[in-house]
Specification:
- There is one protein chain.
- The chain is mainly α.
- The protein has helices at 14-66, 83-89, 92-126, 130-137, 144-154, 161-168, 183-208, 212-220, 225-253, 257-262, 274-284, 288-313; strands spanning 69-70, 78-79.
- Strands 1-2 form a two-stranded antiparallel ribbon.
- α7 (183-208) crosses α9 (225-253).
């Protein structure tokens, strides 16, 4: 007699089915939640993106187009090809303005970087006072125009308190902003005074990322403060310092307002920086095509300098492993 045996039909465990449904529901919920976060992010980004398109990208593209035209606001733009660029290459005032700008950049960046680095190290090593940091940042809160006017009055050859002090020391009054030799260094130092606090705080933030135990270990080994600065601080601060240098160089090449309110490009074009020459060509002589060509040239120069700085300083790498 044969007994037929039957096995119960196979089926998924109840817990597994519930888990599968739960996982599917969770995925759908996360997907919907991600879409909601994406819409919210797009909403917050939209104003900045609109500003970028309207006030940066479109003017840049429009300026590149105008650089190939003859345009004076009164008549439609006339296509002239590379004529503006040929004129620029043969324009001695353009090259003189570029040289004046380079001279200003070297003085401004050299003095500002050294001073800012010294202030940042002192803030990190000697004090953590928030009030002192605020005092250091105070000149940066003043606009370039106001700072230029204040220093114009201070350094006035006849009535300025700065020259009164110089005269009181028994030295002849110095025409800081009226002499070809003194004008660019003076403007550079005015902008150093205004921006050095902000640059110092950027470097101070970079110093805060360096672990303190490295300094403690160096002290145990008998390292001096000077040796720790060159062996620890500078190598580990390099990425932040590189980014700060890139920002300050770009800003220095675009100097305009301090020159406009103090010397207006004089004396004898000694402070006729490139931005001021571009402004004069566009809004003084209504040569918008030629001014646009010089602006494009400046854009190319700044792009090349930025890429070169980024590669030489290895701004994207850090020694902090």
């Amino acid at each position: 007699m044969t007994i037929a045996s039957s096995s119960p039909p196979s089926r998924l465990p109840t817990g597994g089915a519930a888990e599968a449904r739960s996982t599917t529901g969770t995925r759908q919920g996360v997907s919907g939640e991600d879409r909601g976060d994406g819409r919210l992010a797009a909403l917050f980004i939209a104003p900045a993106l609109l500003g970028f398109l309207v006030f940066l990208l479109w003017p840049t593209l429009r300026g590149i187009y105008l650089s190939f035209t003859r345009f004076n606001l009164l008549t439609p733009a006339e296509w002239v090809g590379l004529d503006n660029y040929v004129r620029m290459v043969n324009d001695p005032i353009f090259w003189d303005s570029l040289w004046v700008t380079v001279e200003y950049v070297f003085i401004n960046i050299g003095v500002q970087t050294v001073a800012a680095l010294a202030i940042a190290v002192l803030l990190q090593r000697l004090t953590r006072s928030a009030m002192l940091r605020g005092i250091v940042l105070t000149p940066y809160l003043m606009s370039n125009v106001v700072a230029g006017l204040v220093w114009l009055w201070i350094l006035d050859t006849q009535l300025g308190i700065g020259n009164e002090i110089v005269s009181g020391l028994g030295v002849d009054r110095i025409p800081f902003l009226a002499d070809e030799t003194w004008a660019i260094p003076t403007i550079a130092l005015i902008n150093v005074w205004r921006h050095v606090g902000y640059t110092a705080l950027l470097l101070f933030a970079g110093l805060q990322a360096i672990p303190g135990d490295m300094y403690e270990a160096a002290r145990v080994d008998g390292a001096s403060e000077w040796r720790m600065f060159w062996r620890i601080t500078m190598p580990l601060l390099r990425p932040v310092l590189a980014v700060v240098l890139i920002m300050t160089v770009i800003g220095s090449f675009q100097v305009f307002d301090t020159v406009a309110v103090t010397t207006a490009g004089g004396p004898a074009n000694a402070t006729n920086v490139l931005q001021y020459y571009i402004y004069g060509s566009a809004f003084g002589r209504f040569q918008f095509g030629y001014a646009s060509a010089m602006s494009v040239a400046l854009l190319v120069v700044l792009s090349a300098i930025t890429v070169l700085q980024y590669r030489l300083t290895r701004a994207g790498r850090t020694d902090l492993g």
